[in-house]
Write a structure and sequence with these properties.
358 residues, 7-stranded mixed beta sheet, binds S-adenosylmethionine
């Protein structure tokens, strides 16, 4: 059974970082219970639009109920955000003013005693965000070799005692339920370390592996850049250091122009900046928020703004030409591209951007 409560994390900070404005278009790539999405719709009224994505069909059902008042201006899709760009092209939902990723799993999923995400309830070792995925946590625990499992738990769980844990796991396979696994880990490495249950890191590792979380995040961030209009905002909330490292490195890299090794006489990489960092220091919850919602304690928010340099301009323009706004303005793709190519000065970038966004 699931309880339908999830308190959105860093809510005001997220709305401010996204610069939510009336009439804006937003994508929530991790809809969950719809907490952030509802607040985005409230602040973007009148005229705001939202494309909400979640891999979990249960999350879509809950979010649909939360967003009922905005059913005419929201499009909720049960999909994995690895397909972000394709989804936006399919529904002609680009360019957008802001894209949000609030990573990991929701309290609804964690508290659902049948999903196997938590060692607080006994449940089959499942951990899939979507029932359409084939591999469960039980498949990994029971079929991976000892060395594969140890590597996975060390890498994705940052667990220093992975070898000890895995030796116990392998000796007691098959393991089918969450409590069975939690008890084996407790016996392997002892009881609680402070407030942290000894199985926490292993469960994190399994969930990341089952859902390919890090690979999907990396791929989706790259796609997000192409969907943002000029000065559109990308906001990511992460909950552990592996996710945060990916987000930080991605934003820093995309905020750089040339990335040739130091000392290279002339640029050979051709890299151009696509983003401007909004917060150089990561944003974390206040002590008051952590007290109200302990699950927020590890949250880290990073935000960046889309910039379009002259070099990246035509490429972005070509993609944006599919936009409904452009069609509504009477432009057609070939005519617009021809017009853009005729004027190669920077003013045209601004004019083009103004046509689109803000
Ligand atoms: C932390 S919750 C989001 C909560 C939401 N912001 C709210 O306020 O209710 C993360 C959600 O992202 C979804 N999710 C995680 N990885 C995903 C992926 N690769 N594609 C689509 N959804 C994903 C999970 O199913 C979960 O519902």
């Amino acid at each position: 059974m699931a309880t339908h409560t999830h308190i959105p994390v860093l809510l005001n900070e997220t709305l401010n970082a996204l610069q939510v404005q009336p009439g804006g278009r937003y994508i929530d790539c991790t809809l969950g219970a719809g907490g952030h999405a509802t607040a985005i719709m409230e602040r973007s009224s009148p005229g705001g639009q939202l494309l909400g994505i979640d891999a979990d069909p249960e999350a879509i059902k809950i979010a649909r109920a939360s967003l009922e008042a905005y059913s005419g201006s929201t499009l909720l899709i049960n999909e994995n955000f690895i397909n972000l760009e394709a989804i936006c092209f399919k529904y002609d939902f680009l360019p957008v003013h802001g894209i949000l990723f609030d990573l990991g799993l929701s309290s609804v999923q964690l508290n659902d005693s049948s999903r196997g995400f938590s060692f607080q309830h006994d449940a089959p070792l499942d951990m899939r965000f979507s029932p359409s995925q084939e591999v469960t946590a039980a498949d990994i625990i029971n079929t991976f070799s000892e060395s594969e499992l140890a590597y996975l738990i060390k890498t994705y769980g940052e667990e220093s005692q992975s070898h000890r844990i895995v030796r116990h796991i392998v000796n007691q396979r098959p393991i089918e339920t969450t409590l069975q696994l939690a008890r084996i880990i407790e016996r392997a490495i002892g009881g609680r370390r402070g407030k942290i249950h000894p199985a926490t890191k292993t469960f994190q590792a399994l969930r990341i592996a089952v859902n390919h979380e890090l690979e999907h995040l990396e791929a989706a961030l790259k796609q997000a850049i192409n969907l943002l209009g000029f000065e559109g905002r990308l906001v990511v909330i992460s909950y552990h250091s592996l996710e945060d490292r990916i987000v930080k490195q991605f934003m820093q890299q995309e905020a750089k122009g040339c990335i040739c090794p130091p000392g290279t006489p002339a640029c050979i990489c051709g890299h151009t900046a696509h983003l401007r960092l909004i917060n150089k220091m990561v944003i974390t919850p206040s002590p008051a928020e952590v007290q109200l919602n302990p699950r927020s304690r590890s949250a880290k928010l990073r935000a960046a703004e889309r910039i379009i340099t002259k070099d990246g301009y035509y490429k972005a323009a070509e993609k944006m030409c599919f936009s409904v706004e452009v069609k509504a303005n009477g432009w057609r793709r070939p005519a617009l591209l021809k017009k853009l190519r005729q004027s190669s000065n920077c003013d045209s970038v601004d004019a083009f951007s103004a046509l689109y966004i803000r």
